[in-house]
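Record 1 of the preview.
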Amino acid sequence: MFEGSTGSPRRLRVAALAVVTLVGTQLALGLAAPSRSTGTTPSRPSTQRATALVSQMTLDEKLSLVGSGVDGVPRLGIPPLVFGNGPNGVGNGEQGVTAFPAAISLGAAWDPGLARTYGEAVGAEAAGKGKTVIGAPTINLLRTPLWGRAAETLSEDPFLTSALVVPEVQGIQSQRVIAQVKHYAANNQEVGRFGGQFGEPGVDVQVDDRTLHEVYYPAFRAAVGPGGAGSVMCSYNRINGVQACEDAAHLAALRTFGLQGFVEPDATLAVRDVTAAARAGVQNFQLGTVASIGPASNRGQAEAKALADALAAGTLPRAIVDTAARDILVAMDRVGLLDRPAAAPKATVSTAAHRNLATRISTQATVLLKNTRSALPLQRAVRSVAVIGDDAQAGFQHALNGSAAVLPGRKVITPLAGIRARAPRTTRVTYTSGTPGTVRLPVVPASALKLTGDYYASTDWTGTPVERRAVSTLDFASEARTPLQPIPGTSARSARWTGTLTPPASGRYQFSLGAAGMSRLTVGGRRVASTDTEFMSGIGKWPGAPDLSSRGSIVLRKGHPVPITVEYSSGLSISGAELHLGWNPPSDELEQAVRAARRADVAVVFANDNTGEGMDRDTLALPADQNRLIAAVAAANPRTVVVLNTSGPVLMPWHRKVASIVQQWYPGQMGGAAIARVLFGDANPSGHLPMTWPASASQGPTASPPAYPGKGNAVRYREGRLIGYRWYDAKRQRPLYPFGHGLSYTRFRVGRATARNARTGGITVTVPVTNTGHRTGAEVVQAYVTPPAATGGPRQLAGFARVVLRAGRRTTARIGIPASALQIWKTGTQRYEIAPGTYRVAVGTSATALGSAVTVSR
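->
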């Protein structure tokens, strides 16, 4: 339910609250997974049917199903397993689909009902494209805001993530598509996931057992238990020294959580030993393992052969193959794939309803971080608006990079297009980029560059160079696209070029550095840009993905040569050697933006970061010259609004100088329409932060190397259960914006809460909420529980309710805190338990804006 819906206010409130209460009840009771469409337990035992089918299969058919399943078993009516990426829509370069907002938007919406609707839509599009398994949702927690896939997940909090994954999974599987939740587990960074060097063991996550069970397992527990997810994708990393996909105890925990389906590993390097993985509990190998490095056609075939060889050698019991085949069929039966064959794939599955849903999700997820000087919403009295920023048009960052990228089925609506379409006729809208943006820049020409390169067979510039040569430009890509493909024209895996750069004009030069692997650019003795990525999408690696590049700038004098060094290593590249060095000579773009801002009633600056799979950010600063742009515009116009299209938190040196700050995340193909609704007040912003926004790079639990990115390819989760806002609370650090924060164009008053023990084993909280402003709006009322001191547990989110109210109206919000939110993991008994004692429940509108508190004894 969203702000623009029709119907009585009381009906809106009841609908919004009922969804949250239902999710809490399911999590508390561990209800059985839903059937194909009714949400009830299947009437026919899927295990019985699957077992009967397995008994009719030949060994080759079982191995084919476990190896990949892409062929199905036609003679028994078993359809193919067809995998597709899907956290943000149907990926893999499929055409005619909807590019929905990045998944973090669902986290910011705090609305389980919306998550269910999204799940139904993406499930329908996946089914329409012939997919029977979709890799979604991504439910790894945002342990560090530097994580390159921050926009692909839901939040930093186990409870919020759990509350949203259950309905999303149910929505996906209602469309006869298996939801494969990922990546199990403690997969919270990209750095080191393929090893210190490509093919070495994945990063070793060193984490204690209680933290695993109370922080990193709960969302998976919810997904496969009450959510009924039919599949789980295990991750690349190691956990306490053991590869996650080859850890029998780790995978066995999924069965205790309620998994009735199969485990599949992430692509290729998640499994280093097929037999060990099968013995540990991996049951399908469609995405490949180290055994199938090479042509994609080998995936599944190599694994089936490895399993057959292990059976013949007696190192793999036949029962493991039978159980794997059975569990795959259980998942297929529970979503209805065994009862009705999939329809032929359609050319176009995106619909007007789905595009409207994409607009709705982005609108509801937009977070108003700051609003002063009556800058927002834009009123009719505003006669002129200056839209500024490359992100507002050509460089619009509507999606993240990597496997979650989606190719928009229709034209992307940019912020500029959305604003121009919505602005009153009496309002003049002007546009200037003010910056060359964050995409790759034109290659540095030979006329300015003089370089000599030393080329090395190693990936770390060690040993004697195998070659030395002069070059005039740096712009190359590997055509073969194999992980070990050397620098084109050489046998080298790393190189260092040194020489001089002679600028043709005086002023500030922007540089872009794009690479698959590691690269560093030093100009005039100063580090200007650096990268550490697994691939470079600018050459089309992920259809629908934006460019990936690192940006920096430096002031140079015309005709004065400066020393330049470029270092490159193909290192962890999964697409061979790729490197691009670009620049943008001095221009008057910034001055044009300042002039436009000075002439307008309001200036709206759009800014973005640049993230994706296979990389982590090395800084929370906005890339390129966007901070300079925002500061200059704010100095020219006190009514400056900043809209951020970022994966998550960024540092804001200009924070006090601007009137309003709006966080829109990566809003999908309809992002321009959504932001126009918010800016002009057609929709009242109601998003709340699903993560803590640090005030500086030194804040948070992962601000030191042992905690992130690790040392010696091992990362210590030394913060334990103090993830996200829990760390800030315990360490008394004051963030820039707390978890759960979100402003509105109206005001709400949250009254005194009451609480009582519920028959389900949880706690029921009631609290009066009043809209004291002048507009209809939505508030997210949050309940945080502090357990008995003897448990050593931190204060944490345990329930919430999204309340929609008309101006001047009042209601009573009912928040169901499930028993699972009160449980702790007892390492001695290896069980979840609720400790006796006094529980303190505080209610408010963010992790730091907490009003009344009440205690409940257990």
